[in-house]
Each structure stands twice: as structure tokens, then as C-alpha cells.
Amino acid sequence: MNITTDPLQEAWHRLDAPGSYEWWYFDAEDEAQGISVVFIWFAGFAFSPYYLSHYEEWKARRRADPPSPVDYAGFSFQLYENGKESINFIKEGPRELFASEDGGIGVRFEGNRFVYDPLQDEYRLSIDFTFPARDRSVHASFSFRPQHRFDYSLDTAANDGVDFRHQWVLSVPKAEVLGVLDLKSLSSGKRKVLQFRGRGYHDHNLGTVPMYESIDRWYWGRTFSQRYDLIYYVVFLRGRASRPQAVMLVRDHESGEQSVSAAVSVSEKRFTRGLFAPVHAQSLRLEAPGVSVEVRHGESLDAGPFYLRYGSRFSMTIGEERLEKVRGISEFLNPKPLHSKVMQFFTASRVLRDGKSSVMYTLYNFFKQQFDFRRF
């Protein structure tokens, strides 16, 4: 596995091996208004039931045509208000809907685009989609301005003795974020405009085989406190009894010092599961020289058969200083259910495939719409 902060690695890698995936992730929170947003672009949608079904049929020689990652491109947008999901839009489609910046950093899926301006050191996001299943249209523009970056790289693949490769690009550990969200009801024409001012984060992941062939489980999280910013990334490799590959990055705002540790001890505690949620630890303890962190997964912001997103509380000892219950965001992923035909069927209820109808998708969004008490 590679870990890098090199901004040049953000460009589309044009992976073409069947099962390859690549995604660009942005999230931001406006604490004053209780609003948070997530934007993700995909080239080779790692969680697509359609892509993975095609891959498995090709691998089993039931199909002759190998799946091309770019024919399973996509975009997702999530809006949370006061800790509750307001919009969860996921759409995928063929290569005609996807484009990358020629010679630069940025991608587009339909009317949704991000581009990086190196002269201004700014990421500009423009969003434009309709969501008929939930009676919405969304137009938005956002600016992510990095407040600092890390300078770090680690290549463990050479020593792993394995035939897969996953790369995490930590692009922007913290950003100043400004934006405008224009939400409209398609049926009534009513509008809600939200002005956004907050802090955000951006990273980039890619790999050359389906995640369930290489990764057993995966944890990620971040917190911004008054003095410290902390990010962790933990990957348990499939079929490996050794300790996970983990990295923890800390920035001290008072001194300006940054530290990165790849010698992280990881302990999972209080395992549980939900009806459709995977088995996961309710708390995570991370130990590195000079840093001790306990992450308690709190309210679930998003849940599925392979993925969980939390509002979490971080208790940290950094040097001589102790911080208790600092707010943060954390995620858990267990890719194994992605291999299950049953779970692929249920996952399809949340993914709109361009040009393909789905009874599950229609029913899921119908019931979500009926219980959406934040309609306007």
C-alpha cells in the first residue's frame, strides 16, 4: 500500500485493469448551522453492484467482456442537517458521462465537477443534478482552500509480498470552505438556499483490484480541535495475521509542528453489528510515540451493509496535554459484503445506474421520501 501527500498524484490515473477503482473525496462541516456535506467522484465505482457483478461474471468466464473502470464512473452527494441525512444521491454511468482535466487535476461526472487551481491553491466544486426519486434538484458551488498540507510518503507494497496495490493520497488535511447550496422541490418549485462557511477535508484513493480481494476492514477518521488536528488511516489486509497498516498524522497549531507516525498500535473494542450493518468496533484505540487516542463511534450519519459513517468523540493525549471528547468524523468499511449477490441486490436500492431501471431503487426512495419530515 502507498501513502502519499504528493498533489500530483491527484490526477486521474487512467486505471484500466478490471476491478480497478479511483475516487476523490471532499467533506466539509458548518458547525454554526449544523450542516455537513460530502462530495465524491468515482472512476471505477468501487462500491457499484453493477461493476462488481460484471467483474465476477467475467472472472468466472460467464462473460467475455472485461469490465472497464471508466464505464462505471459516478458521483455521490450527501447533505446532513443537525446530524440527520437530508439528501443521499448516488449515480453512476458509462464513460460518456465522465471527463478529466486535460493536463491538470479535476474530474467531471455529468454536471458535477471539481478542478484544482494551483495558482490560487484552491479546489472549486460546482454541482448540478436532479434527484426525481426524492423530488429534488441541487445546484451548488464550493471553494476548498487548504490551510496546511503534510509532506509524507510511505511505500509498503515492496515489502508486503502481495500482488495488489492500494494508494491513499492525503491531499488536504484541513481546508477553509465557503459555499452556496440551492435546493429546490421539483414538484412545488419551493427553494431553500444555504450559505455555507466551515472547515473541510479532501483525499484521494485508488486500487487495482476490488477492495474485497485485498482489504479485510478499514478505518479512517479526523478531528479538528482548537490546538490539534489529527487524522488516522488504518487498513487490515485480507488474509494477513500481522498488525494492520496504520498511519496517524498530527498538527500542533501553537507551534506549527507536524508529526507523522507509521508505527501505530491499533486496538478494536466492543464489537457489534446492525441488521444490515457489518460487524464493527464501537471504539478504536490508537497508540504511537507521544500520541494516544481513543475514538468512540457515536451517532450514525450513514449506514449500509459494508459501510458506516459516524459523528465520533476523540479522547487524546498528545505529549503532556489531555483532550477529552473532541468532536470528529470517522468511517468504517468492510468490503466483504460487496462480494455477496444478496448485498449487491440491496446496495442497488441506493445507486442509480444511468439508463437502468431498478425496482429496489424506486421503492427505497419512495419510502425515504414519505418519511422525510424536512421537506419544504
From TrEMBL:
The keyword Transmembrane applies. The chain crosses the membrane at residues 32-52. It comes from the Bacteria. Keywords: Membrane, Transmembrane, Transmembrane helix. This is Hydroxyneurosporene dehydrogenase. It comes from Chlorobaculum limnaeum.
